[in-house]
Amino acid sequence: MATACGNDDSDDEAPGAEPAETSEATPAPDPGEGGDEELVIGSMMPETGALAFLSPPMIRSIALAVEDIQAAGGNVRLLTGDTGTDPDVAPEAVNRLLGEGAHVIVGAASSGISQSFIQTLYDAQIPQCSPSNTSPSFSTQANAAFYFRTAPPDQAAAPVLANLIAADGATNVAIVARADDWGIALSALLANSLAELGVASEIISYDEEASAFDATVDQATGMGADAVALVSFAEGAQIMRDLLEAGVPPSAMYGPDGMYDPGLPDLVDPSNPNVVDGFTAITVGNTAGQAGDDFEARLVALIGDEEGVAFAGNSYDCVIVMALASLAAGSTRGPDIIAQVSAVTSGGEKCFSYRECAGLLSDGADIDYDGVSGPLELDEVGDPSFARYQIGQFQDGELAEIGTQDVNLDDPSGAAPDAPSAAGQPELVIGRVMPETGALAFLSPPMVEAARLAVEDVQAAGGNVRMLTGDTGTDPDVASEAVNRLLGEGADVIVGAAASGISQSFIQTLYDAQIPQCSPSNTSPSFSTQDNATFYFRTVPPDQAVSPIIANVVAADGATNVAIVARADDYGNALADLVKAGLEDLGVSSEVVSYSPDAPSFDDTVTEVQSIGADAVVLIAFGEGAGIIRGLLEAGVPARAMYGSDGLFDPGLPGQVDPSDAGVINGMQVIAAAGGTDFSARLSEYTGANLSYGGQSYDCVIVMALAALAAGSTAGPDIIAQVQNVTGGGTKCYDYGECAGLLAEGTDIDYEGVSGPLDLDDVGDPTWGRYIIAQYQGGDLVPIDSQDVDVTTLG
Fold it and tell me: Does residue 497 have a cis peptide bond before it, meaning omega lies within 30 degrees of 0?
């Protein structure tokens, strides 16, 4: 299980508020002046005791951070201590680490254990960072002046959990909670959040050291609860077992991070791996996009995935922030370090690793470290100002991620406060559905990150928006379920899907519910004419725009006889016909070779291409295209004679074709919609060279937010009626803040997106598009040209 807090036998605030010694922090000198002073980091994690299951990912992440700092030239050393998950053992371990020279402490895992030694650290002026304490107490108590954390406090988690419970239709909730600092605080916050949603609840506190929980279960069932929230740690498994025996189904049970444990089924009933199927829990997730994913993959490679990765990124970031603060201060003194913690995590030039940030500091630059757990932006009391929660549900014995939810800690409801342009504006809940798994998962990073950046920009400019997320799985059935869940959780609009065929799987649902939908990457012409697309629009032009570009590129290279190898689906059939027509207009003959993307082999497809005697091949494919390319190469077709549509615009494609040869498809060209240069540079900080449809995804979110603002409503018909109005015909504006300001003055606007002018027409299609032409060179996907298209001039 993953947890935020711990067994707390102390009061909310440790006794004493005066440090043993007072000293003002010295001004931060040039980082280079203190670079030779060794920083000694003491790690305090539960290697034994009730929370020992938590420690492997956190302990290994702390060690990884130290290794990375040392590799980058940082002068740090690690000491370790075991809290024993015991408030008597932990202070002894801390005193030992201080005696051995620790300048800072990372830990503890639980709030109760941190409370057992926070006064000691306050007295000694020793900075402390916890990666997983979430008790609200630390934000206000007097002896937390040397304390900060990289996990958000429970003020953020409570509304997320409450929204899930309410969305499932619960009306009377039993909140079964540990009688400790964490349990008492979170249960009260959860009860308040449920009340705001009109859901009744009752808190049932229990002693976590009790030998049996029969009375607790009797109280929950006796109140006639239709849902149970378990604010528990490991003992929650026994309570669940008793609840199941009392007839409460797992689908009616919910838990915070203390119950987010892949091993929970075995704790409840080792003989039945499906015993808790339907149980839903939340935990802190990473907001760092590709950087966070890469870190988690790195960690799993070291410790396996059995332990999970909860709070691993937060642990890593505790160490990096301590080291950067010490470097910025040019000192290992506690007051000097703590004075720099907020400064190195906000307000300066963004950097994403110790090495990069240290380099900026040595150049005299202010920095803003965005960690592997995401942007920190620590506030004046050392709390993060932004959080992402991962929503998991047990399915077939496995803990599967079913969504995420972002929270603005300045306003846990998600709204940015005191924004004149959004005064009185109702909250717009945006549901994002993208292929985080499945055949199109490679497309997801730039679109996911761009949507997140858009939400952050809207919030920063005063917009009242919140985002929910879902995974289409690149599967029509999975996508439909994800959309239904998002609607149940209150989504007012949907951004997605990536593939036309996937959007078709739920467009009727959205039409029936009158929910606006924007896709950043659907290019099938069908959406321009079908009756159930009334609430649909897109920020990428339909394939009528890209097909002549593909034809021009192929013809310019001298091809005379082209095989168009296309998926036998809505996207493939339509684009193949358009490319064929474009080639014919240029006097180039062609033949369409359709294939089933689910075929076990593409030998017949390759054979048909050979029989045509083609001197060029256009591939309209997704991930399965790698297998076709491999077959074509083996048949003697050179990569330079191959051209790909946007479904193959993937920097990782060479590795899929031949992991042993990075240059295997050198010369192949691919074409996809592009965003503006400035935004692409910003997005590349998170996704590297993988930028496809990022600008279009960003613009989907901005247009939805502006349309809702213009309408003064989150009702679907009101929003969709404004979409065309805010993207054409008014005063040009180039970001949400500027456009919102004009709307507040009563001015009509024309939002010019980061993907270019949109000027959406009466069926929701852009009338302008920009395409990037890239070629694989030296194993990399390198842009070689771009073309702008006025869609209104196309036949």
Answer: yes
